From TrEMBL:
Transmembrane segments: none annotated. The keyword Transferase applies. This is Arginine N-succinyltransferase. The keyword Signal does not apply.
Amino acid sequence: MIVRPVRSSDLPALIDLARSTGTTGLTTLPANEERLARRVGWAEKSFSGQAERGDTDYLFVLENDEGLVVGISAIAGAVGLREPWYNYRVGLTVSASQELNIYREIPTLFLANDLTGNSELCSLFLRSDYRSGRNGHLLSKSRMLFIAEFPDLFGKKIIAEMRGMSDEHGRSPFWESLGRHFFKMEFSQADYLTGVGNKSFIAELMPKFPLYTCFLSEAARSAIGRVHPDTEPALAMLKREGFNYQGFVDIFDAGPAIECETAKIRAVRESQTLVLAVGTPGDDATPYIIHNRKRDDCRITAAPARLAAGTLVVDPLTAKRLRMGVGDNVRAVPLTASREAQ
């Protein structure tokens, strides 16, 4: 398997992937051919250095050895520099009266743009029949190795918005208790509109004043900052890389926005540049993510490898996938942290 930049020839495969995601769950990959074609075009400009950071969209695909595209992931260079980026910040309001012997702490939601300018990990999706082995880790963590190689392209902090709670029909309890009253549309429709870039209605319709969560339903309150069960593995993986929740949630489904300083991400911090050697890694080889250190011709794979005197020893198939040979420089990092591998 190899992770590489998206190409215009991948558009039919992206449409198929978008249709397989269902009606909700991946707002940045809508099954809209015009929108996806525009996004692929911006990705090609981003990888070739023809876009400003506020417009960059590094969209990657996961491809098997037969050339079949089975997954996607992306990095947005900076959020909110071209149009407002909204989250709710979960705060606290205290009401107290000594005379009445009343003291209450009420969680409160504040509409905020605090995450503006950060880079974002987004658009992660893998075909269900390929969700095994190292594929999911490679697809997600390859982005971090790309960031490690080109840190000047990204912000000092990386964020990731995680999918919030919804039922088997795609209904969000948070949306039903809050958003529906202001937007008068289904959650899936609002989710789709943001995915295709129509976000102005948020500013036009969303209340600007703090919202007291005590007015929400119990189901909505319990959904704040929680992820959908299908998203729990992705959340756990990002936490092991150093990401954590700092009190920002999505305005539609209240899923958490997690964040980490770029330099403190495990895969960024522990990655190193090495000289490639081709041979036999051995039975005790460690799985590595390996990047060919290129930008528009980027190729990243995961494979067993062995460190030996400043070189990274890989097998011939891995070198072939990277399109690299003996003596070439690569950037590499163990696929998982040592405590994660145990």
